[in-house]
Amino acid sequence: MKLLTILFYIQIITYCSVFSQESTRKELIFPDIFGLKTIKCDFHSHTVFSDGLVWPTVRIKEAWADGLDLICITDHLEYRPHEDDVKGDFNKSWEIAKKEADKLNILCIKGCEITKRLPPGHFNAVFTKDNNKILKDDFYESVNEAYNQGAFITWNHPGWLQPNSIPVWYEQQSTVMHNKQMQGIEVVNDKYYAPLAFQWAIDSNLTLICGSDLHNPSNMDYKCENNSHRPLTLVFAKEKTEESVKEALLKRQTVIWHENLLLGNEKYLNELFENSLKISYDTATYYGNKTAVVKIENQSSFDFEIVPLEVETGLNLNSIGTLYGNSTNIIKAKYKGKFEITKLELPIIIKNLLIAPEIPLKTVIIL
Amino acid sequence: MKLLTILFYIQIITYCSVFSQESTRKELIFPDIFGLKTIKCDFHSHTVFSDGLVWPTVRIKEAWADGLDLICITDHLEYRPHEDDVKGDFNKSWEIAKKEADKLNILCIKGCEITKRLPPGHFNAVFTKDNNKILKDDFYESVNEAYNQGAFITWNHPGWLQPNSIPVWYEQQSTVMHNKQMQGIEVVNDKYYAPLAFQWAIDSNLTLICGSDLHNPSNMDYKCENNSHRPLTLVFAKEKTEESVKEALLKRQTVIWHENLLLGNEKYLNELFENSLKISYDTATYYGNKTAVVKIENQSSFDFEIVPLEVETGLNLNSIGTLYGNSTNIIKAKYKGKFEITKLELPIIIKNLLIAPEIPLKTVIIL
Amino acid sequence: MKLLTILFYIQIITYCSVFSQESTRKELIFPDIFGLKTIKCDFHSHTVFSDGLVWPTVRIKEAWADGLDLICITDHLEYRPHEDDVKGDFNKSWEIAKKEADKLNILCIKGCEITKRLPPGHFNAVFTKDNNKILKDDFYESVNEAYNQGAFITWNHPGWLQPNSIPVWYEQQSTVMHNKQMQGIEVVNDKYYAPLAFQWAIDSNLTLICGSDLHNPSNMDYKCENNSHRPLTLVFAKEKTEESVKEALLKRQTVIWHENLLLGNEKYLNELFENSLKISYDTATYYGNKTAVVKIENQSSFDFEIVPLEVETGLNLNSIGTLYGNSTNIIKAKYKGKFEITKLELPIIIKNLLIAPEIPLKTVIIL
Amino acid sequence: MKLLTILFYIQIITYCSVFSQESTRKELIFPDIFGLKTIKCDFHSHTVFSDGLVWPTVRIKEAWADGLDLICITDHLEYRPHEDDVKGDFNKSWEIAKKEADKLNILCIKGCEITKRLPPGHFNAVFTKDNNKILKDDFYESVNEAYNQGAFITWNHPGWLQPNSIPVWYEQQSTVMHNKQMQGIEVVNDKYYAPLAFQWAIDSNLTLICGSDLHNPSNMDYKCENNSHRPLTLVFAKEKTEESVKEALLKRQTVIWHENLLLGNEKYLNELFENSLKISYDTATYYGNKTAVVKIENQSSFDFEIVPLEVETGLNLNSIGTLYGNSTNIIKAKYKGKFEITKLELPIIIKNLLIAPEIPLKTVIIL
User: Fold this and answer.
1) C217·D117 Cβ contact <8 A
2) SS3 state at D254
3) CB contacts, 8 Å: A162 with chain C
4) Whether residues A197 and A158 fall in one domain
5) Within this chain, do residues A172 and A280 fall inside the same structural domain, yes or no?
6) Alpha-carbon distance D38 to D301, whole Å?
7) Are A284 and D103 an interchain contact pair (Cβ–Cβ within 8 Å)?
8) Which of B70, B113, C7, D256 could be joined to D263 by an S-S link, Cβ 3.0–4.6 Å?
9) pLDDT tens across D17-46, in order?
């Protein structure tokens, strides 16, 4: 009788497996830089164990299909609207997700969202050991416990509930900063980018963090039809391991990918740009004029929007050009000067790489 | 203290609502026919309350966004792998979903999947009153209880676990058919179409039913990138109400939309085709020849694939033409005969409208 | 022998027609406003008869497939780089195109581009009678002849060849303006929008004109893969006739559609917005708070990007929402105040409707 | 005065170049096989110099943007409907195209279409030296001249003008075959695949050729919106040079890519399939059962549609799986037998690789 029941379940599982046969992953391509691996991470997500709307394994399947390498499960500690139906302690959602993650070679990081009213608002602790111990009435005690567990702590969506969504920095933020217990700040949360948080990160040496804060299934919020993608944090780490990623976070080795923008330190953005391109050069002379016809292959998945700068070299390329990802793009540059030159340098700005709020990266394409 | 807790939750909810602001629905357009409304239905889906992977409200949000009018929640009675963590009786998933459905004007039908080993396999009961009472060890008792509650009962995925997925009809099926307790059969389940089940439906006067059998989030299985859509049952009902849909099911007033196929009775398919088109006519004479240049507007969301039949009228249109949905399509037809004609009739088959397995609809376009 | 030749050609034509059987048009939907028809126009295009790269009939087929109602053929008078191979006078490209246009019910307007060096640059004359007579060495004589033929005259791409593409206004522009012989200005040419030209149009009562200036095939420059569309001028005319469109141009009844922007007079933009939407209202009370859940159907093909304004009514919708075209969109608005209100007014700006350079439309959605 | 004219043109050209700045090429990826390069070719296209609708340079720009390596310009000799306006001998379209091709590193092959009434219909001669000499009243004389110039000769669209488009083989075809002057046959022309021509090619050792036969701009006939692509001939050649491609054609080293089908010799199809995949293996045991979870990376641009074969090894994978291109795909295979096995072999058919009409490739995936 017992055996029959077991056999019954085997059959069910055989059947169910049919439905998962066509999972597909399209790789998101960003070059490795400075000898480090570029790890694609989402540091903020929810499941039915707090107010999310999917079973924990879905977060893993989505991460895999969306081209990620790492995801954090960060269910709320203080807010669990499904608790009448969904039981289990504060580590349970991670435990369920972790098994699926191991099969798919996704790093699944344990975390939780310390969910306090304003001030100070919400904070994520990731790389935690036991979320149950972090739930405390007092904000500082929670942060302290997470910190003692070795967690990396981030201030989430700093503009949340503020007028016009403009971030407000409270005393509590200053305190945990002073205690070195707040290492990161969410410059992008879901579809919302907070320029002021970007500036604060620069001024206070906080790690740039981005979190999807997914509650819905991923493809419901980031619809292919609307050409939107989940926001990511690119982490430049020695290896694709938990330890390496954590080390890289502490060294602030991150860049944020939000919509068609990359936000980050100049040196990382410049290196990502240069390592994404392959340039081949060809010239043609028309009516005595020098015209450079350049083929630029962009091997990354990112579309770079470039604008040439007018300078004394005489180059003039009077329009924006988009170097589409996974494509080869043809750019014509005209030389207006009188003299032969053998190496053209095209000074440009890249409109959608920001090294600070509203400040695009300046660089030079050498043709 | 209690007040503070309440206020706390208000804040959370305010925040969460931000994430659901950009839900979008693209209407699926099929014409109403014979004075009946064309209701877009999915009769088979799961939630975390059985082996599904989403919270019940997700099934409603997805139904709305995917352009549906009606969805059934049909969690397994006998198979609940999450039961260590997810509690609640067999009506609970429907109760949660129903509240969301009312807000979005989606019909949410209570149902359950009677989940027995082969034979006889799985059956859906929809329009049930109390799922808890339907769970019984004995298959016939379960069906009987569902029937007595007024449920519409369907044999699910008849090829499940069979060699090469070819359906096998067992004694149990004959028995419940004989008792008039099985009214429908899943000709399409998820991505799988069973031609033999289609033939049985025709031979035995069973209602053609199609179920997505969703366990994952909808957009994970039916990816926009792969141009796939969730399979639907079109029900031709007097009104968009539970009662009307049930009545229409009992009268077998359905057509199945699977990939780029419509499967159903000739009269419904023909009427859907004719009511989808607007034809405007124009002629031009070249070198003494008669050429009909026809603009055909296809107002539905469905792409009809037509192939002209060569007949004695002298028309020859030697290739397939696709009448793309939501578009106007230009077709050129040439007249080879000698005489003036004032009304051209173009006999065609529509390759992707099937009135029986492998038998496409034949019809005539009158130009 | 002669007969054989004729029969030979018949056969060829039969064959060729096969290749044009699947032309498809997806309608671009903008509402009619103020009792006028909204005509979708492109006022600037080239063919192999000047430096364009397609046969004139292609401009018509493209216009039809791209959802346009009207196209101008405006080949250069002074620049014909293919003239060793392509013969024919300055009206010939229009004559060839016109025959195809009549079949497809597209308005095909005769025009030409008066192509002078800077200053003053290039001008389009559309609604011309005989382009051959307009070719003159002297700029003023050309414009005068075009004007006397009843042409509508537009200054093309005012930033062409200027440093950083910033428009420069020359004495010649002042002279023809003074003579009332220049009625329009290209605020958008191809992919380039000139904010200064927009301002000049407002200041000098010039008609806002947009031209694709197509030389390549349309789908080569505006690729579906890149989600780009050909820029259009929407003209609000009494009827879809040449005369009505010309009358509307003289009355400056136009709006420009460039990328995801509409540029134009406040009254037209506001009316387009209001007539694109259908709003249905529903409320729900959570924890004593008033939350408006609004379904907004956007029946146009345009995606409106709205941002709520914070005002004393207590409404706060702290994020951008996109009302996607051909879709129903759900927006949640929260009421923070204490009193019951029966009609909610949501003051917004629409980020991508510009009534002047950098000035978005302000309006109110009445829920 | 003369100087002024020259300066005038310089200015114009400066301007025009602006419009060609954003040309983009997305590489079509097929693996090189058997130490040969896989060259992507289109052997049939038209320009305004016969009945095509684009300037010759457009065929090159399109070829580049569409991911091709080689294109033939094959204007009709006997049919030139634009000849009142477009002058130039039968080599002119190739000469114009060739200059553009050299800039973009596209192989541009000189050819022509010998355009006779039925019988025998149309033949392409490619790799010709002087098209002017090939125009003759007599079909055999034309073919003979082309052959003597070293051309590769193909029978085009064998079903053209035949009832139901079924190919008819005439005496003339036999004669030129017998003379070894017909080496290829168009199995696919534009959107039309002729299975009978495929069978003839196999039976008579003719090279499988595919031609787009483009008259319109490429993106007008193969619309991104409809997910259609231009049909291609993949040629397996020692190098990307004219000589190597011609040699490979004579050795019948080709495969045709039509819609979602590859047509060709078993050895090429099998090698393309195997060299497109990277397989990584993982196992998991559930309830004593062996389940193979396999990640298969498909590095090509082609979607392989696989169906498992039931065999005595006990493997059962009862559904179709699509291995999407440029993606990693997860497949679950279940082992039903009793014994441990260390290497799983999954016998499959690939539905959309055809080694003869209606005969799919059978192969084995080794897990």
Assistant:
1) no
2) strand
3) 318
4) yes
5) no
6) 13
7) yes
8) D256
9) 332 356 889 899 999 999 999 999 999 999
The pTM (predicted TM-score) of the whole model is 0.91
Helix (H) or strand (E) holding B242: helix B242-250
User: What does the pLDDT read at residue C332?
Assistant: 72
Instruction: Tell me if B366 is assigned to some domain.
Output: no
D72 and D138 share a domain? Answer: yes
> Parallel, antiparallel, or unpaired: how do β-strands D327-335 and D321-323 relate?
unpaired
Question: Among the residues of chain C, which ranges form H helices?
Answer: 2-17, 56-65, 92-104, 139-148, 171-178, 195-204, 218-221, 242-250, 266-276
Question: Which CATH number goes with the domain that contains D235?
Answer: 3.20.20.140
**H or E element: which one contains D170?**
none
Token reading at A152? 């990396």
Q: Is C172 helix (H, G, I), strand (E, B) or coil?
A: helix
Residue after which a domain boundary falls, among A243, A264, A285? A264
Strands (E), C218-318: 232-237, 254-258, 261-264, 277-286, 289-298, 304-308, 315-316
Tell me whether residues A226 and C324 touch, CB distance under 8 A: yes
Whether the CB-CB separation of D186 and D209 falls below 8 Å is answered with: yes
> What was the pLDDT predicted at B134?
98
Question: How is residue C170 written in tokens?
Answer: 């020359």
Amino acid at B321: G
Q: Which residues of chain D carry a pLDDT beneath 70? A: 1-22, 281-292, 310-320, 333-345, 367
Of C203, C237, C264, the residue that ends a domain is C264
Which residues are paired to A33 by β-bridges?
A36
Same domain, D214 and D303: no
Domain limits at A54? 35-264
- ∠ CA(C70), CA(C74), CA(C78), 5° rounding? 180
Q: What is the pLDDT of residue A292?
A: 66
Q: Are residues D315 and D341 in the same domain?
A: yes
D21 CA: distance to closest CA in chain A (Å): 5
Per-residue pLDDT band at A287 (split at 50, 70, 90): very low
Q: Is residue C155 part of a domain?
A: yes
Inform me whether the C-beta atom of residue C77 falls under 8 Å from chain D C-beta atoms. Answer: no
Q: Do B319 and D161 touch (CB under 8 A)?
A: no
| Total structural domains within chain C | 2
